[in-house]
Amino acid sequence: MSAYSQGDAAAFDALYARHKDSTFRFVLRQCHCERAIAEELFQDLWMRIINASRFYRVEAKFTTWLYRIAHNLLVDFYRRNGRVFNISLDDSENMVEEPVEKMGAEPHNITANQQSLEKLQTCIEELPIEQREAFLLQQEGGLSLQQIADITGCKQETIKSRIRYAVKKIRQQLSDES
Amino acid sequence: MSDNSQKQELADDMQDIAELYAASQTEQSPADRDDAILTAAHESAKSRSKSANQRRGVYHPPLAIAATLVLTIGLVVLIKQDIEQSSLPPSIDESLSESFSPTIQSSQEETTQALLDQETKLQTSDSAPIPAKASTPPTIEKIQAANSEPLAGVASDKVLGESMPQPQQASSEALKEAVQRVETRRQDALQRARATNTDMKREALAQKRLFAKKMRDKPLAQAAAPPTTTPQRVIPEVDTMPPAIRTAQRIGHQKGEVRVVTDQLEVWYDENHRWISPEQYFALELKRLDGPTYGTVVTYPAYESVTEWETLIDRLADGRECPMVFFHERWRRLPDVLDLDERLRNYGGCADVFNE
């Protein structure tokens, strides 16, 4: 990004090739909207990256910066459309962590067939926004709990709980279907 | 628990889900969007490097012109000062102690030298041995003694510009006349030099008395000023100061100075030399920054869309307002950034702008 901010267009090509698909999927899943709108948002995200590259400073990982802008873009999108981040009842900061065994189906018992893949998409779409965002940031961005916490402005423990509950719900639904 | 161990624990918990998710994610960004984004990025990079070059190009000529002007003006001022210094009459002390004496001495020396030259030429024309350069002028007797020897040429005619019909006798008489004339001229020159010396001394003395009188008459502060006849360089301190500081010194107020008049704060605005209300002051400062960029707002614009030195007026819930400026990647209170008086920093909504 530093190279691009100094006018190296090839640096941007490499950066874009590395992150375009993951950011597109993040926006597509997280906006909970039509594909065309998601594409618009995706393009808007990268235009913001291009415009803001002049002010980019190497203070954090580029991925963190990228997904923070994506997060802000989606927050703006929700506000424009009269939607707000809903704090789900099971997502308080004080919630007690349950042991993994009690959180639903046992690990490694879900097989990757076509049906379960389609079902997974539906499960993710049905997650509360905050849980979905935390889950997607981890899966698509490969970000750590701390990085996700920095992006969303939450505590690390909250992010951890959100991801746990997201996984629990997904696993539960997949198990029910199977 | 450390971040890594937490991450590992979480990863173990959701390994199957993560694998399933990775297998399900086949969507790719649309090709037309890719093209549009990459085109925009390339154009931005191109324009950025171009504008950087232009900026360099734009700044170079004015810088060169400014540097040339500064050098030229500096040289002109120096030369002018040197000329003024050299054209000024010497100081009284110098004139009394040194200046006049060398003048007289040099004029005397010049006169004496001229006479000696003439006499030497005359002697040479009479084939007399050339006397060593004497410190005192030769006397008439010496010249007459020299003239007793036979004349060899007419070189003296050329010197005196007169014809001599009888070679020996005539030349002797002409020589006497010439010597007398030279002697007369010498006496005249000496008299003139003495007179000039006396006049100059008198004039210098008069100037000194006049200056002493002025010094006695003037108040103490003014008396410290150097006399007009002294060719000292006066450093123009006031002229070299920036106009704003000079104005502030003249008027006695500084920009942003605060006073309380009938329980109302007033701020000194230097540009129009007036005391104005803090609201007016903030408005003028915002205008100076081409603002307020986002007008009066309740909600701040997205960070990504804001650039440095953009401004807005933050309206609090109770209607109070505070001018804000985006400075060093944060929204800050304008009076803080401008380093204004503490009372202005907490004026109106600025006192609670960070509490909401």
Secondary structure layout plus pairing:
The complex is a heterodimer of chains A (178) and B (356).
Chain A: H1 2-5, H2 9-31, H3 35-52, H4 62-80, H5 114-126, H6 129-139, H7 145-152, H8 156-177
Helix pairs in contact in A: 2-3, 2-4, 3-4, 4-7, 5-8, 6-8, 7-8
Chain B: H1 3-13, H2 15-24, H3 31-87, H4 92-125, H5 140-147, H6 155-160, H7 167-217, H8 220-223, H9 237-240, H10 243-251, E1 258-261, E2 264-269, E3 274-276, H11 278-288, E4 296-297, E5 311-315, E6 321-327, E7 330-333, H12 334-337, H13 342-345
Parallel strand pairs in B: 4-5
Antiparallel strand pairs in B: 1-2, 2-3, 5-6, 6-7
Helix pairs in contact in B: 4-7, 5-7
Radius of gyration of chain A: 17 Å
**Helix coverage percent of chain A:** 55-70%
Strand order of the largest sheet of chain B: 4-5-6-7
Q: Determine the mean pLDDT of chain A.
A: 78
Beta strand % of chain A: under 5%
Which pair of chains forms the biggest interface, and how many residues does each contribute? A-B, 55 and 43 residues
Output the keywords.
heterodimer; A: 178 residues; mainly alpha; 8 helices; globular; B: 356 residues; alpha+beta; 13 helices; 9% strand
Write structural notes for this entry.
With 178 residues, chain A is mainly α. Chain A contains 8 helices and no strands. Chain A starts with a helix and ends with a helix. The relative contact order of chain A is 0.13. By secondary structure, chain B is α+β, with helices and mostly antiparallel strands. Chain B is built from 13 helices and 7 strands. Chain B has helices at 3-13, 15-24, 31-87, 92-125, 140-147, 155-160, 167-217, 220-223, 237-240, 243-251, 278-288, 334-337, 342-345; strands at 258-261, 264-269, 274-276, 296-297, 311-315, 321-327, 330-333. In chain B, a hairpin with a 4-residue loop joins β2 (264-269) and β3. In chain B, α4 (92-125) runs antiparallel to α7 and α5 (140-147) packs antiparallel against α7 (167-217). The radius of gyration of chain B is 46 Å and the shape is elongated. At the A-B interface, α2, α3, α4, α5 and α8 of A face α1, α2 and α3 of B.
